[in-house]
From TrEMBL:
Entry keyword set: Antioxidant, Disulfide bond, Oxidoreductase, Peroxidase, Redox-active center
Enzyme active site: C67
Top-level lineage group: Bacteria
Family indicated by similarity: Belongs to the peroxiredoxin family. Tpx subfamily.
Source species: Paenibacillus pinisoli
Protein name: Thiol peroxidase
PANTHER family noted in UniProt: THIOL PEROXIDASE
GO molecular function: thioredoxin peroxidase activity
Length: 174
């Protein structure tokens, strides 16, 4: 088994340094494959969204204020992005918690995916927080050929991403 890259000091939680596991991906990189859970028994991979533009919104935990606001904002945007764009929200929350939150929040346009089983996504996309086993807030926009076209790694876990830039990056690919 190969040693995964650790990046220390590139992110913080309330000012305290965090260690992110995995590579720092950039626009132009090929998007790594992943296995994420839609439910306890159903998993999906990058190929399940072949040919579509993918706006991937990564949140540490859906039950926190910024994660809640981020997911609601991208749910609103999803309605205007068209059928060729899929908005995926990834967290390490259990699929049960994600489904409960969506029901309570009325969120129905975003596909909720869980990285709880093995942090496969977090490691592949360089967002796994070593200290918490959660995924760091980040945004990835991937084109229909699975090339990353936009990346935002948030330097502070409690900050909001640049919603408009991410949405515009997705719109530009349609």
């Amino acid at each position: 088994m190969t040693q995964l890259q650790e990046r220390t000091g590139v992110a913080t939680f309330k000012g305290n340094p965090l260690t992110l596991i995995g590579p720092e991906l950039k626009a132009g990189d090929q998007a790594p494959d992943f296995s994420l859970n839609k439910s306890l028994v159903e998993s999906v991979s990058l190929s399940d969204y072949a040919g579509k533009v993918k706006l991937i919104s990564v949140v540490p935990s859906i039950d926190t204020g910024v994660c809640d606001a981020q997911t609601r904002r991208f749910n609103e945007a999803a309605a205007s992005l068209g059928d060729n764009v899929v908005v995926l929200t990834v967290s390490a929350d259990l699929p049960f918690a994600q489904a409960r939150w969506c029901g309570a929040a009325g969120v129905d346009k975003v596909v909720m995916l869980s990285d709880y089983k093995n942090n496969n996504f977090g490691e592949a996309y360089g967002v796994l927080i070593k200290e918490f086993a959660l995924d760091m807030r980040s945004i990835f926009v991937i084109d229909g050929d699975n090339t990353i076209r936009y990346v935002e790694y948030l330097p502070e876990m409690t900050e909001h991403p640049n919603y408009e830039q991410a949405i515009e990056a997705a719109k530009a690919l349609v």
